[in-house]
Amino acid sequence: xxxxxxxxxxxxxxxxxxxxxxxxxxxxxxxxxxxxxxxxxxxxxxxxxxxxxxxxxxxxxxxxxxxxxxxxxxxxxxxxxxxxxxxxxxxxxxxxxxxxxxxxxxxxxxxxxxxxxxxxxxxxxxxxxxxxxxxxxxxxxxxxxxx
Length: 147
Known about the structure:
This protein is mainly alpha-helical. Helices cover 63% and strands 8% of the residues. The protein has one domain: Winged helix-like DNA-binding domain superfamily/Winged helix DNA-binding domain (Arc Repressor Mutant, subunit A, Orthogonal Bundle), CATH 1.10.10.10. It is built from six helices and three strands; from the N terminus they run ααβααββαα. The chain has a three-stranded antiparallel beta sheet with strand order 1-3-2. The radius of gyration is 18 Å and the shape is globular.
């Protein structure tokens, strides 16, 4: 048995959160590959499946992504017929992003693929609700620190 002391890096909570995020993203990427979607594109779809016809800035707020990051994601999704973009009648500088029929029809299939992947990886064996609650508390705390 080794009595090796954990490295400074291994003792950092931020490093474990980073690794978990990276690993989740990799798992989702494999699952989304047949749909030719990236993880950030999937997040955009999730936001719009919950509420269609959102302003770009509202999607950005929900996903905590800046417009400079979000616009290329949305443009790529428009090119691949996942989304439509129309100028807002109220504000000519703003755009309304909507799901296409392809995106609406694919929701169940994508969701089932995600559930199947999560189940096959035994993510559900851990207490996911406790972990989610703790991560939300951590993110809320870190957000307050930024203010």
